[in-house]
Specification:
Blueprint: H1 2-10, H2 14-28, H3 33-48, H4 56-64, H5 71-84, H6 87-98, H7 105-121, H8 124-141, H9 146-157, H10 167-176, H11 180-209, H12 219-233, H13 238-248, H14 254-272, H15 280-311, H16 313-324, H17 328-345, H18 348-365, H19 370-384, H20 392-401, H21 405-428, H22 431-434
Helix pairs in contact: 1-16, 2-3, 3-15, 4-15, 5-14, 5-15, 6-7, 6-12, 7-8, 7-9, 7-11, 8-9, 8-20, 9-20, 9-21, 10-11, 10-18, 11-19, 11-21, 13-14, 15-18, 16-18, 17-18, 17-19, 17-21, 18-19, 19-21
């Protein structure tokens, strides 16, 4: 119905449908997403005449010629160095000590370490792989069914794009012209709310099925164990401390904080003796591969956005959506559904560069705060990462463990439901996203 309304409103022709069909076919053929977007963007430009092809190269360059984007490879590299130096295991030790009092403590520790890793790497797939290698076998040994252990890690890793500093917020800030530092501050409470919803889900499931014992720890034992963990691994928290203090105090931009975090993590690795010069080629190649997926997508987003704007698609979408219903709560719910479905099938970056310019005018039309819109969009996309049957994180942990994707997806349903509740609160209550911001942004 919405598609028919859009077609009638904008009078779309083959200059739109042709590139869309081309994009779907290329993705179905497993062509890299950046290449599919690029081919579709060029096809749309050719058919619509929106931009002379002689200017496409310049447009691509301007798409990535932003200082803020330098933070993306820096955060990715920081996450790689963190794993190589073994500092990520220190996070797990501290998280385990913090949750030892609770029944289901190691499951909760797994979720916490996902959040800690998210606060450094800003990537969900990297977090799922890194944390999964450390925890899934131990979760199974603690009594959890393997499919549930995989689903727990997949859900916890969603915080990679939800807890600042997040690569997703850097990209959406770039696409919509909003400061990444402002989005980081706004995302603190929503990100922690999602993390708590995953923790609550695990505690409830553990109490229902009694998978993991524990919790019979005296106050003295708890403090002793926590003290030992902090004494052994306190230095690991220097890195997230630098990032958070630097960005939120205003002393550093996200790019400067990322650069400082990389240098400090490398120095710590050499001091601890866990990092060698021979590790650098593989680390740099690994980070470059991830970065090489993200930046071409961003580069092709500008000509694609220009073509869509000239065709009137964003304005047409607003007119089509409001013709279906003029009620803001209905339109917000419609956006949430679209975003979760998109997050279910495609990675964050292409979703942001394609959908943000289309949905933002609708959010403006119903009076939604632009900061709240960004937080809602990234959160809903994050929920899509574990939404059965196509969530990206489900495939990451399935590939890591060899466990059936359908079994993991079934176990992920409770996490999806709890995260969806939090997402709806974020979508309908602006205060959750803006409470920490100066009045000028509210």
């Amino acid at each position: 119905m919405l598609w028919n309304q859009l077609d009638q409103t904008v009078e779309l022709g083959w200059d739109f449908y042709g590139p869309v069909i081309l994009f779907v076919l290329l993705v179905a053929l497993a062509v890299p997403v950046w290449a599919a977007i690029g081919a579709s963007a060029i096809a749309m430009l050719l058919l619509s005449g929106a931009l002379p092809l002689s200017l496409v190269g310049e447009s691509l360059f301007h798409g990535i010629d932003h200082f803020a984007l330098t933070a993306v490879p820096l955060f990715i590299l920081t996450g790689d160095v963190l794993v190589r130096t073994g500092l990520s295991r220190k996070f797990l030790d501290v998280a385990e000590a913090l949750t030892q009092f609770a029944k289901g403590g190691f499951g909760s520790a797994t979720v916490l370490v996902c959040g800690m890793f998210a606060a450094i790497s800003g990537s969900d797939a990297a977090g799922a792989a890194a944390v999964g290698r450390m925890t899934i076998n131990r979760l199974v040994e603690s009594g959890y069914p393997r499919p549930y252990a995989c689903a727990l890690v997949a859900a916890g890793a969603c915080t990679g794009i939800l807890i600042p500093p997040s690569i997703a917020y850097i990209i959406i800030g770039l696409v919509l012209g909003i400061s990444a530092s402002t989005l980081f501050l706004a995302a603190v409470i929503p990100g922690l709310a999602i993390l708590l919803s995953i923790l609550a889900t695990n505690i409830i499931m553990n109490r229902l099925y009694g998978w993991e014992g524990g919790g019979n720890v005296s106050a003295g034992e708890y403090l002793t164990n926590l003290g030992k963990a902090l004494k052994s691994g306190w230095y690991a928290f220097i890195v997230p401390g630098i990032i958070f203090f630097g960005i939120f105090s205003g002393r550093m931009t996200p790019t400067e904080a990322g650069a400082t975090a990389v240098v400090v993590t490398i120095i710590m690795g050499f001091i601890l003796g866990t990092l060698r010069l021979s590790d650098f080629p593989s680390m740099l190649v690994s980070s470059a591969k991830v970065n090489g997926i993200i930046l071409p997508i961003i580069a092709f987003s500008l000509p694609l956005a220009q073509a869509l704007a000239i065709l009137g698609v964003p304005q047409g979408f607003v007119a089509a959506a409001t013709s279906v219903s003029s009620e803001p709560w209905v339109l917000i719910g419609m956006m949430v559904v679209i975003l979760i479905a998109a997050g279910c099938v495609m990675e964050t970056t292409p979703n942001i560069v394609i959908l943000a310019p289309i949905l933002k005018p609708l959010a403006d039309d119903i009076g939604m705060n632009e900061i709240q819109f960004c937080i809602m969009m990234i959160t809903a996309l994050g929920v899509g990462f574990i939404t059965p049957p196509l969530g990206l994180n489900l495939f990451v942990v399935s590939g890591l463990t060899g466990e059936s994707i359908l079994k993991i997806a079934y176990r992920a349903i409770p996490f999806v439901l709890f995260m969806l509740i939090v997402t709806l609160f974020i979508a309908y209550l602006p205060t959750i996203s803006t409470i920490l911001l100066p009045d000028i942004f509210k």
